[in-house]
Amino acid sequence: MQFLKVFLLYVIFNFPVHAEPHHHEMTGHDVKEGHSAHEAHLELGTLGLYPINREASGTSWQPDSTPHDGARWDYGDWTMMSHGYLYLVHNQQNGPRGDTKNYSQGEIMLQGSRSLNDGTLTLRSAFSLDPLMGKSGYPLLFQTGETADGETHLVDRQHPHNFFVELGSSYAKPITDKHSLFLYAGIVGEPALGPAVYMHRLSGNLNPEAPITHHWFDSTHITNGVLTLGLTHTLYKIEASLFHGREPSQNRYRIELGQLDSYSARFTLNPTPDISMQISAAHLKSPEALEPTINMNKWIASMTFNQTILGGLSQTTLGFGRNDPSQGHASNAYLLESSWNIFTTNSVFYRLERADKNELFSHDHALADSSFNITKLSLGAEHVFGTEQSFKKSVGIVGSLFEYPSSLNTDYGNSPKSVLMYFKIKI
User: Fold this and answer.
1) Cβ-Cβ contacts under 8 Å for 260 (sequence gap 6 or more)
2) Rounded Cα gap, residues 56 and 46, in angstroms
3) pLDDT band at 42 (very low <50, low <70, confident <90, very high)
4) How many domains does the chain have?
5) Which residues are bridge partners to 72 per DSSP?
6) Nearest Cα to 70, choosing from 60, 80, 59, 58?
7) Measured CA distances, 262 to 110, 297, 413 (Å)
């Protein structure tokens, strides 16, 4: 685990304890303790009196100094925003259990906000192109979770995300010059749990691969039925959710509503414009369709921070997740990822993660239900070309290495590697 030590030393010696504000568009660096967002004359978030750049997926937060991409325009009393991306990917996963596939993946989001009775009403929608790749998704060594046919677990593959990623709304109303109450409801949405999902956090969204720790940190980001009540301050947020705990099925174009039988709570703190940290917990009732009698308790802690390195913005996220099922053993996952923009048109990124995997083999295999510590290191680079600002085009490459117990050599080989090459269009 020498490379793990190297990355941890990097984080320790580069952590921005006294980070200076960056100056991106509408970041809200003037919103500091003792000053409301109204006083700073900034564009406000949809859930409270803070800069809109703080908002990420669902009701999650990110550092204020994160750039807020997307097209914006006014339509009557509404302020509209849209952003999205499309990947064309060549994916090669090596080793005995690897595979190769060419596919596309993408997402488009449309949001509208307006003032209503001294508060802010927001309507949100998001749609994914992932179902076009087929029910079995794309090859991804050591990935587990969900199903393609309703009968067997997907193993060494990443499931496609549902066509409906979010169909929801929120209403927020200030109660003091620093506090607001909000209610978020979604036919499809994201409960108050974990950090911003990997596709929407700057540290992770350049990598088209899902993390192998996805089902520790992000498993509820598409939930069929969510209701969240929260209190925001200019520096912190407290919120709790009721939601339907069952994960989406293999029917990726359906909205499968059910009882609000699960719950979560999250506390988020943005102490400076460059730091956002959260701690959250949840109880999920029967999340897995193939194991309906098993419930799940989850705990997640994470921190995201921005800093400038040689004139380019870098964002880093550290996370710890724990899944504790009502039957079987608890498992842990660790995440360290970062992206760094260099000279505007170039970016480099990495993702280091470690997870306890116990679903790698079918029930009739000799290693069934055994848990294995899997470590994955991914390194990538992206180049943006062209001068068009509304549609940014880029090409990138990601390579990954793995470390795992020797007992898996027969099934995975001695040192499998993976390579992804992609073309991306981003709104």
Assistant:
1) 225, 227, 242, 243, 244
2) 11
3) low
4) 1
5) 81
6) 80
7) 28, 10, 40
